[in-house]
TrEMBL record:
<dbReference type="InterPro" id="IPR001533">
    <property type="entry name" value="Pterin_deHydtase"/>
</dbReference>
<comment type="similarity">
    <text>Belongs to the pterin-4-alpha-carbinolamine dehydratase family.</text>
</comment>
<protein>
    <recommendedName>
        <fullName>Putative pterin-4-alpha-carbinolamine dehydratase</fullName>
        <ecNumber>4.2.1.96</ecNumber>
    </recommendedName>
</protein>
<dbReference type="InterPro" id="IPR036428">
    <property type="entry name" value="PCD_sf"/>
</dbReference>
<keyword id="KW-0456">Lyase</keyword>
<dbReference type="Pfam" id="PF01329">
    <property type="entry name" value="Pterin_4a"/>
</dbReference>
<dbReference type="InterPro" id="IPR050376">
    <property type="entry name" value="Pterin-4-alpha-carb_dehyd"/>
</dbReference>
Amino acid sequence: MSETFCDLAGQSCKPCEGGIPALTAEQAGEMMKQLDDGWVLAGDASYIEREFKFKGFAKAVYLTNAACFLADQQGHHPDIRMGWGYCTVRFTTHAVNGLSDNDFICAAKLDAMVKG
């Protein structure tokens, strides 16, 4: 995987209806190098997750809304948990029962939004 973080964030998700293999743990580990250090790869490489911490409720809501907007634009929808002072975003590709490039594209785009 020779893409850089900027390259990943500049890509768009491609529709996934299954029929492709999920990324292997090794492939997912390589892709993790392109994301913010806050992302965690599940032990079985089935999802990536990042918890964002805030002082208060409003910023957690704002990030939740931004993640939802990004997901809608990309057609790739994460699981999101939020409450006072936190927002946790988890990406996985249900159609392949694991991770795909789309998960890393969306994570990189969210990283760029947060840094932006």
